[in-house]
Amino acid sequence: MIRLRDIHRAFGKGDERTEAVRDLSLHIEDGEFVTIMGPSGCGKSTLLSIIGMLDSEWEGEYTFLDVAVHQLKPKKRIALNREYIGYVFQQYHLLNDLTVAENLEVPLTYRKVKGPERSRLVEDTLARFELTDKRRSYPGNLSGGVQQLVGVARAIIAKPRVILADEPTGNLHSDQARDMMELFQKLNREGTTIVQVTHSEENAGYGSRTVQMFDGSI
After folding, report:
1. What is the rounded CA–CA span in Å between residue 63 and residue 192?
2. Gap between the Cα atoms of 148 and 169, Å rounded
3. Mean pLDDT score of the chain, rounded to an integer?
4. Which secondary-structure segment (H or E) carries 2?
5. CB 3.0-4.6 Å disulfide test: which of 86, 130, 142, 151 passes with 160?
6. E strand or H helix at 197, and its extent?
């Protein structure tokens, strides 16, 4: 499903140049639940951004569902991302001028889900995450934990083929974190491929394989 070959990503120039990912190759099969671990600054989040097609300033070869991503123009990459990938960001990246319900609608709009079905999916997802009473709230008025729940709900609402999660339980209390990981495990058993970045050994235990990174390499 995901094939990375000799991926290299650097930031800055000259003496300020930092190699975040270097000569990295990784294969992820359809239906896997892969955890990426390693010390802070080793390139985990950068790698996840590359897999999610949010970062295009890298070198190497990337194949996603037999599509050569490294050969695609930016618009085609964006379309591929919106069609198949749900992303849980460490910093939420919710749209502050939209309510919780409207944030959940965004990925459904990208996938051209019609109005009545869109409304049903939003209401079902709000109920699933116990967010119904927050449906008209704006992200800036919510706690970090609730924003994290909204971010996860937004990532899964359109039933993506792949979920990419960057420290998905970082702002949740222990019961919420356990519920979240059990949800990911359930989705994985139903066929969703999941790639998570985490420092948590407990979270890693929910996956089927752990990849260790150090200094930008596996």
Report:
1. 18
2. 8
3. 95
4. strand 2-11
5. 86
6. strand 193-197
Amino acid at 190: E
CA 40 – CA 156 distance, rounded (Å): 27
Residues 45 and 85: their CA atoms lie apart, in Å, by 16
CA distance 106 to 108: 5
Residue type present at position 30: D
Q: Quick check: 208 and 202 in contact, CB under 8 A? A: no
Please count the other Cβ atoms lying within 10 Å of the Cβ belonging to residue 200. 17
Q: What are phi and psi of 85, to 5 degrees?
A: -120, 135
Model confidence over 34-76: pLDDT tens digits? 999 999 999 999 999 999 999 999 999 999 999 999 999 999 9
- Render pLDDT for 133-159 as a digit per residue (tens, 0 to 9): 999 999 999 999 999 999 999 999 999
Q: Please list, in sequence order, all residues whose beta carbon lies within 8 angstroms of the beta carbon of residue 15, skipping any fewer than 6 positions away.
A: none
CATH number for the domain formed by residue range(s) 2-212: 3.40.50.300
What does pTM read for this prediction?
Answer: 0.94
Q: Which residues is 8 bridged to in the sheet?
A: 59
Pairing of strands 193-197, 33-37: parallel
Give the up-direction half-sphere exposure of residue 64: CA atoms within 13 A in the CB hemisphere: 21
Contact 90, 166 (CB under 8 A): yes
Both structure tokens of 21: 């990912």
User: Which residues, including other chains, have CB under 8 Å from residue 189's CB and lie 6 or more apart?
Assistant: none
Query: Are the C-beta atoms of residues 189 and 31 closer than 8 Å to each other?
Result: no
